[in-house]
Design brief:
This protein has 158 residues and is an all-alpha fold. The protein folds into 2 domains: 74 residues, Recoverin, domain 1 (Orthogonal Bundle); 73 residues, Orthogonal Bundle (Recoverin, domain 1), CATH 1.10.238. It contains 8 helices and no strands. Helix 1 packs across helix 2. The structure holds calcium ion (2 copies).
């Protein structure tokens, strides 16, 4: 979808959601507020959609999203989950060896599940995910294994 395809009503809804999250004295939406505003529009962003959008716009993490940018995000979100996941894979492959190992996977799952307290993304959980997704049994995730794992999860399959 393109911004030009939005109806006046779409734009009103988007503006209402945007305005509901903008705090006094701030020039726009933080990542967290953007997520809340999208949820108000009935859109559930994946853990990486918003981060990647910030990255694409070349914004720093604490910079804010304008209404115009929020409209664009509304149009491009959820269009290409695989591309977003491939981006996330490279981001979390911190030692750049082309695979996600256990430590990298743990950080990634913590982000996916927003479990900053480490409440239930523990070593056992990470091991289970790795076992399930590791199709060729080499103990690390290749990009295809990783994309399959998360796309299946978001599609609600087992
Ligand atoms: Ca790696
Ligand atoms: Ca593997």
């Amino acid at each position: 979808m393109d911004v030009a395809d939005l109806t006046d009503e779409d734009k009103r809804e988007i503006k209402t959601a945007y305005d509901s999250q903008v705090k006094n004295g701030c020039a726009g939406l933080s990542q967290k507020q953007t997520k809340t505003a999208l949820l108000r529009l009935g859109i559930k962003p994946s853990a990486f959609d918003i981060e990647k959008y910030w990255f694409d716009l070349d914004k720093s993490e604490d910079s804010c999203l304008t209404l115009q940018e929020f409209e664009q995000l509304r149009c491009v979100i959820n269009t290409d989950p695989e591309r977003v996941l491939r981006w996330a894979f490279n981001k979390f492959d911190t030692n750049n060896d082309g695979t996600i190992d256990k430590d990298e996977l743990k950080k990634l799952l913590t982000t996916v599940y927003e479990d900053t307290e480490g409440e239930w993304v523990d070593d056992e959980f990470v091991n289970d995910c790795l076992l399930l997704a590791d199709g060729n049994n080499d103990g690390v995730l290749q990009i295809e294994e990783f994309v399959d794992m998360l796309l299946q999860r978001t599609a609600g399959k087992t």
